[in-house]
Amino acid sequence: MTGQGKSSTAQRNALPDASEEPRDFDDLGGIYRLISALIGVAEDGEDATRTLSRARQLLDDFTRERTLKISLQNRIFSLARSSSIRLRPPEAKFDVTYIAPKDDEPPVMLLIVLHGFGDGKAALGKMAEKMQLPGVACLVLQGPHRLPSELLPAGGEEIGYYWFDNIDWARGGEPLTRRDESLERASLESLCKLSGYINETLIGTVGWTSSEIAFLGVGQGGTLALEIGRRMEKEFAGFFVLNPDELPLGCPEEKRRVPQRVVLVSGREDGAPSFSSVRSIESELASEGDMAQLHEQPGKAMDVLKDRNGKGEIFMRFIASRLAAVRMRSLGAEEVN
Description:
This is Phospholipase/carboxylesterase/thioesterase domain-containing protein. The protein contains nine helices and eleven strands.
């Protein structure tokens, strides 16, 4: 059942009926042999983590029958969850880039990376690939909306994306401010889509817990990350946010929200937002119960992601502390505030 030279009849015999649950899934080897038979890849001896990771990769190439593919996908992720193995997420509502931890070791923490207004996932994806943090998988998402083509420079295929409208295009690009109904509606729509993806796919399907998920956000992406922390009523591993825009939503008044650990960074050379604006966000988050820290950089805020002349120390300290907290939780210990 393993080589490409096997007849199509033999392959058909290996397939369960598309309307039924797949058979022969008694162990990890069974599911791997079935997928190998489907696409003609020879099986080999691998441990559970590598077997499921490879099966997950092979699943992307399997397009014969969507019903069967979904059933196979559900079984693969079910087996992975039962073994506490965190696989690369399945196809998403977002355009995403997944970067495995250094040396392909099993991930302990997931870092969701959200770009700023008018940017895209390409630059931050390349940065994440260069960092390749040990024990940390990175998931770089791209905003669902795009600026009009006439506003983009030549060769700007990888940029121009954003998360929600915070500009009044009818008034010549005037920024929208809090309490504007259109801003609230747009940000809530984006928030609902991202929180649904986190709940249904990352937590429900892959098996991550919220306390194993951290965020790195830039500009509008950082603002969206902060709103996730304010609205989802889950404790996350932490938030590292560079130059966030004004928070578009007020804190829910009906209940005290879950406090988060937040690091904010403002750069003197960035121009906007101003340090005082970011400090106002820090004060608001602290008043809502967050453990918020604010750092002002002499250069640009993005410099903290570049490990040059010690500028990356703030970010690496954040990653190290959040990773240590996740490991402590896995051992049953609680983090001291």
